[in-house]
Amino acid sequence: MQFHSRLVVARPRHETTCNSGPGRFAGVQWVAVPARFPDRRDQIGSALPKLGSEAASGSAVARRTDWKAVWAVECSRPMFALAIAFALLPGLTRVAAGDFQGATHLMPFEEDTIAYSKAKADSAVERLQRRLDAGQTTLPYDANRGYLPALLRELGIPVSSQMLVFSKTSLQRERISPRNPRSLFFNDEAYVGYIPGAHLLEISVADPKLGGVFYTLEQKQVLSPKFTRNDQCLECHASAKTMGVPGHLVRSFETDETGVIDFSTGASLVNHRTPLSDRWGGWYVTGTHGSQLHRGNLVGREAFAKQITEPNHLGNLTNLSRFFDPSPYPQGGSDIVALMIFEHQAHMHNFLARLTCEATISQAQYGHLNYLKAKVDSFLKYLLFTEEAPLSAPIQGSNEFAAEFARRGPKDQHGRSLRDLDLQTRLFKHPCSYLIYSDAFKQMPSNLKAQILKRLHEVLSGREAAPEFGSMPRQSKQAIFEILADTTKDLPEFEAFRGSPAGASNSKPKATVNEASR
Fold first, then answer.
1. Higher-pLDDT residue of 457, 85
2. Is the pLDDT of residue 27 over 80?
3. For the residues 414-438, what does the mean pLDDT come to?
4. Each residue's pLDDT tens digit, 286-327
5. Distance (Å, rounded) from C-alpha 84 to C-alpha 31?
6. DSSP designation for 335
7. Taking the CB of the first residue and of the last residue of the chain, which one, N or C, has fewer CB atoms within 10 A?
């Protein structure tokens, strides 16, 4: 029997077809990966020789098509082609594991309802550019680090948030290596990337309406610095891994000694649900974590092999000078706590963008949001950390970053905040994302936000008995309810939280939430 079919495993915003190619498709199964996803093409090319006897015999081959649209895997059996697709792209099958069904298909964000590329972003970068243009502020140029120090100061991003990644996964990947890692800094809204010797600063923001928006700033001293919006970043930052909307990526892969990624290893998506043992491949990590293993600080095959015989041989580090010269960087470390918060936040930003996009399109097309109930519940599970990977030993990072992070959050009458860190058995003492205070949440479509807050109230007040929320201790729900009630008094949409939840006490608990819940 002859077969003529193809399996599209990744695609850009519009359907990719092979109609312009040669017509000799008999006996072919196509696993199509568009040219705008070069990492997937590289993965096919490197992984195909490992696919077993059929591949080795030559009945399955990878080749670039003449019309340069796709890479293809050619074989004579349809199920074998399907197996190849899932073997080569494990990340695509895992991305949606804890998210709502359909979360990974690409949303039509370039169509008129959203009009991503045409729309003007409303972000900290745009506001800074307006202040610069009006002469209300300046960006002094530093002889060693260019505009980085001034940019972090203007955007309100703490230097202590520094994280270091040595895998070649950036617009300027040729500049990145284990000897010259890229540093990343962040706050609740913006991310800044700096590579010593590179000619661009890389900036991204979580825009309340558009999701991730990306900019560059040339590291060249000029009278009037200009940020350039760069939608080319969507080649990687709008895919299944970002929940099908423009967003942010945190990944963990083994690298070789130069920082080149091995796509057949690691996790294509990292967030607070990812076990520590799967995190930080391609990243440097400073801080202590006890006997817990992670993949950070491991450069090349020998380091990973030694991890098997000598677990944590590069764990619990507080100094990275053995790997590179830290002097070009604002700080010498890559804080473990900053990394954990960053991983939660990046995916939460994607989740907020996805729901906003879905609600905007659904309202325009159908006039209601009736189809979003299951997706709202999935969002609440992530918001409330119900599937968080537990810690088996205490985490200790930079005191400076932990203090700065906690200081930014509003506190209730008992001094409690959603930014209070636990770091003993979990990330936060009160597991509800602090991004509930963010502009991305506040500026959601009002009917979507009302639906989310109604369900959140039901969960925290104990009226929701669904098993996915049943694992949350009563004391934890009560503490979060009370914190929200005290810290959202200026937000009318939180009015339902003004009363006490069922069984709540108006006095401060004698035990911490962590102690009471365990």
1. 457
2. no
3. 98
4. 999 999 999 999 999 999 999 999 999 999 999 999 999 999
5. 8
6. B
7. N
* Residue 436 DSSP label: G
Nearby residues of 30 by Cβ (< 8 Å), 6 or more positions away: 5, 6, 7, 18, 70, 72, 73, 74, 81
Q: Which of 31, 33, 22 is nearest to 78 (CA)?
A: 31
What are the two backbone dihedrals, phi and then psi, of residue 190, each rounded to the nearest 5 degrees?
-130, 155
SS (H, E, C) 454-470: HHHHHHHCCCCCCHHHH
Rounded to a whole number of angstroms, the CA Rg of the chain reads 24
Q: What distance in Å separates the CA atoms of residue 170 and residue 150, rounded to the nearest whole number?
A: 22
Q: Is 241 helix (H, G, I), strand (E, B) or coil?
A: helix
State the DSSP code for 120.
P
* pTM recorded for the entire structure: 0.80
Find how far residue 148's CA is from the centre of its chain.
22
Contact criterion met (CB below 8 Å) for 207 and 245: no
| CB-based burial label for 132 (10 Å; 0-12, 13-18, 19+) | middle
Residue 70 CB: number of other CB atoms within 10 A? 23
pLDDT score of 500: 64
Strands (E), 40-136: 61-64, 70-74
Report CA 6 to chain centroid distance, whole Å: 30
The two three-digit tokens of residue 1, written as one number: 């029997």
Write the CA distances from 258 to 64, 234, 283, 295, 433, integer angstroms: 26, 25, 13, 16, 36
Cβ pair 66, 22 in contact under 8 A = yes
For residues 244 and 192, what is the distance between their CA atoms, to the nearest angstrom? 22
Q: Return the axis-axis angle of helices 38-47 and 78-88, rounded to nearest 10°.
A: 110
306 secondary structure, DSSP code? H
Tokens of 63: 């080749």
Rounded-to-integer distance, Cα 341 and Cα 261, Å: 24
What whole-number distance in Å separates Cα of residue 292 and Cα of residue 389?
12
Strand partners, 30: 6
**Distance of alpha carbon 387 from the chain centroid:** 16
Look at residues 267, 289, 268, 271 and name the one whose alpha carbon lies nearest to residue 336: 289
DSSP state string for 74-98: E-S-HHHHHHHHHHH-HHHHHTTTT
